[in-house]
Amino acid sequence: MTLADLDRGQQGIVEALAAEGVLRQRLLDLGLVPGTCVQVQFVGAGGRLAAYRVRGSVFALRRAAAAQILIRAEEEYR
Amino acid sequence: MKTGPLVALAGNPNTGKSTVFNALTGLKQHTGNWAGKTVELKKGYFHHGGFSVEVVDLPGTYSLTPCSPEEEAARAFLASGVADAVVIVADATCLERSLHLALQVLELTPRAVLCLNLMDEARRRNLRLDTQRLQEELGIPVVPTAAARGEGLEALKEAVIGLIQGQPQAFPRPLPADPDQPAASRYRRAEEIASKVIADAPRGRPGFTGRLDELILSPAGGIPIMLALLAGALWITIAGAGYPSRLLAAVLFRGEEYLSQLLNWLGFPPWLHDPLVLGMYRGLAWVVSVMLPPMAIFFPLFTLLEDFGLLPRLAFNLDRFFERAGAHGKQALTMAMGFGCNAAGVTAARIIDSPRERLVAILTNNLVPCNGRFPVLIVMGAAAASWAAPDLSGGLASSLVVLSAITISVLATLLVSRLLTATVLRGEPSFFILELPPYRLPRAGAVLMRSFLDRTLRVLSRAVVVAAPCGLITWLLANISLGDSSLLVRMAGWLDPLGRAVGLDGMILLAFVLGLPANETVLPILLMGYLGAGSMLQVDNLASLQAILAANGWTWLTALNFMVFAVFHWPCATTLLTINKETGSAKWTLLAAVLPTALGLTCCLCLATAARLLGR
Predict the structure, then answer these.
(1) In terms of CA atoms, which chain A residue is nearest residue B313?
(2) What is the pLDDT of residues B333-386, one digit of tens each?
(3) Least CB-CB distance to A56: which of B94, B220, B312?
(4) Which residue range forms the structural domain that includes residue B468?
(5) Which site among A49, A53, A68 would you substitute to test the B interface, given the most B Cβ atoms closer than 10 Å to its Cβ?
(6) Which one of A27, A34, A44 has the shortest CB-CB distance to B317?
(7) Looking at the structure, do residues B450 and B393 belong to the same domain, yes or no?
(8) Does some domain include residue B215?
(9) Does residue B557 sit in the same domain as residue B432?
(10) Cβ distance of B320 and A46 shorter than 8 Å
């Protein structure tokens, strides 16, 4: 599954990046390396854009970019 | 040629790097609370312990992998070895990501000091950090700071001087990253260090930002809240600008009498006295008294909202529309800058990496009204509103008119972007990553000072530099006769057929043409033309504005079309020059002028035709 499959409040662990080139590099720079926990913080109207929490900061990605981040879902705990 | 010691500032966006730079150098420079604002190298100096140190503010980047011009610039600067020391500005509340960049810097140079900034935010969130341990792990000096409050800056200067004087490095350099997976290995190292340094980390997002985002980023609430904030800012501006405007006008026109007396006493002949006093001085007084009060109110309000961190949220809420228009998500940010000044908005488009989507942002920026056009909209909005609905109170009515103008201009931006991305600028959408930094309560005093100095005075001085010669030229045109009428009236006559066809008139079009150097001068030029008095109207006669317009055949339709054309016409000269500089192409600059003009003329034509068909 990918990051785009998660609903608000759910979280997952990054397994791999399907993205290539600059997008791949950018995502890595933000710390989305394998093993990193990502949580869906907010979903924009229409579900085309969502804000993700990664290593203490929050980033918004469009659906197309989020779908290139392969994850495994994790139990919710808060 | 190198003179004194040189220090570079490196760091992620939103770590307060610009604030550290300002605090070190005392240089007044704008800092915005959004990613990637600093795109040029800024320089300044500080003096400490007998040293005069030059400071270079590198662009804020997430890494030094050369993927963008900013990273390229930062990397090249650090690799060149020009800097005697590097200050790595780190976010204490976001340590792992800051360390990722710090480790990359340390791979290039060991002569670095880590400035652990935003310690005040960390304290507020009960985040405790062991700076001594961090120093041991990294092998470089670590100085905790809260630059916005001025904390830790002396220690930082001390540490920088220490590095420059070549104090021996007591600790080994960190190992270079695994060449196959550099990012992953650096982040592993960063996690390892962070786990040793962070004593107590509360989970979850800071309460305030989380709760507010819950509201502002919600699908239903986001856009209405943003509109309400904008309406509030406009209302405060319009309601608050009236009195100081009248006061300034009174003072400046008293000044005109004194200036006139002085020139007469000096023996200036009328042919020199009149253009100077009635042309230049009066044009200037007009612009200053009409422009300064709304700018002095609106700019600080806008800066407060911006520094609070609202712009990335605006981009978040508007993105679905920009995505549908085939535009880049950050175009919402450059558009927002355009409301302040279109030339600034065009320059801000550098934050968009893809050249195609950057062009879309540049070409559409002028579709939103800048601060130079707000006063025109406000004055005319009040006039139009009282035509249409005489019962509405002036301040409220013109706020509503300006708010609708803004909404329409945003819709036009989306439409024209769609048009461009479907035709001349077709292509694959590039990705974008939008950081949503925590809200930061701006320090009102600093904001007021900075926005006044940076924005108000800059825009005003530009307007003044332009308004004076503009007033002179208009005065000359109005006073040089060709046959039985002045040049101004003649030129308006040439444009009249076109003007009438689209529900305007020749004088209106001429005022926009002559107002090319600055939109602020359109209204005074227009009134001067109508009055045929050979000089601009005194501002305190503004009450009679509506009567003058009506006497020249204006109806509510003329007022409406005037506002439409004020929003949609060619960019001012400064913006055109900026577009030419940014695109490096006369072709795109021409398109940037033709597009909004065609849109404005078409809209006016449609409105005029509709009104004729309806028999109004």
Answers:
(1) A60
(2) 899 888 877 888 898 888 888 889 999 999 999 999 987 788 788 778 777 776
(3) B94
(4) 222-613
(5) A49
(6) A44
(7) yes
(8) no
(9) yes
(10) yes
Final residue before a domain boundary, out of B204, B238, B267? B204
Distance from CA of B281 to the nearest CA of A (A): 51
Whether residue A3 contacts residue A15, with contact meaning beta carbons closer than 8 Å, is answered with: no
Residues of chain A in contact with residue B323, where contact means CB-CB under 8 angstroms, are: 48-49, 62
Q: Quick one: B517 and B384 in the same domain?
A: yes
Whether the CB-CB separation of B65 and A25 falls below 8 Å is answered with yes
**Half-sphere exposure (CA, 13 Å, Cβ side) for A27?**
28
Q: List, for residues B469-501, the tens digit of each pLDDT value.
A: 877 888 888 888 777 788 888 888 899 899 888
Its ipTM equals 0.92
Phi/psi for B436 (5° steps) reads -110, 85
The verdict on a CB contact (< 8 Å) between A31 and B65 is no
Q: What's the CA gap between B214 and B228, in Å, rounded?
A: 17
Strands A11-17 and A37-43: antiparallel
Residue B446 lies in a domain: yes
**The total number of structural domains that make up chain A:** 1
Q: Which of B204, B235, B262 is the last residue of a domain?
A: B204
CATH number, position B172: 3.40.50.300
C-alpha B584/C-alpha B36 separation (Å) is 22
